[in-house]
Write a structure and sequence with these properties.
Blueprint: E1 3-7, E2 10-12, E3 18-25, E4 34-41, E5 48-53, E6 60-62, E7 70-75, E8 80-85, E9 94-102, E10 120-121, E11 125-129
Parallel strand pairs: 2-11
Antiparallel strand pairs: 1-3, 3-8, 4-5, 4-9, 5-6, 7-8, 9-10, 9-11
């Protein structure tokens, strides 16, 4: 069992920065055996993959729309995953979700930002970029 809780969302002006956190908890899991993804969904749109990090922490992937602006990282000792968002744009406004999938085998394999890959999901945190 794995429970994911996002935090850090809020209202920010265009060009500003925000850091999202995803705290993992539960029993019978080892976070360093899970790949983690960040996704977002704006009203009226389908959920979009933003970024992911493999279970070893050595490989990351980003959507073209956020490359160079967002950074995903993980701190397994704190059971926490982060998404640092810089140079925010109004188009980044959405509910942001973290998700996890077991990756005990081939831990160094590249992750995929496809929501069909992920088994565990948080409830989301709202990010609004507006003047």
């Amino acid at each position: 069992q794995l429970l994911l809780v996002e935090s850090g969302g809020g209202l920010v002006q265009p060009g500003g920065s925000l850091r999202l956190s995803c705290l993992a908890s539960g029993s019978g899991f080892t976070l360093d055996y899970f790949a983690i993804g960040w996704f977002r969904q704006a009203p009226g749109k389908e959920r979009e993959g933003v970024s992911c990090i493999n279970s070893s922490g050595g490989s990351t992937n980003y959507a073209d729309s956020v490359k160079g602006r967002f950074t995903i990282s993980r701190d397994n000792a704190k059971n926490t995953i982060y998404l640092q968002m810089n140079s925010l744009k109004p188009e980044d406004t959405a509910v942001y979700y973290c998700a996890a999938v077991g990756q005990r085998i081939n831990r160094r394999a590249m992750c995929v930002i496809n929501d069909h890959w992920y088994d565990y999901w948080g409830q989301g945190t709202q990010v609004t970029v507006s003047s």
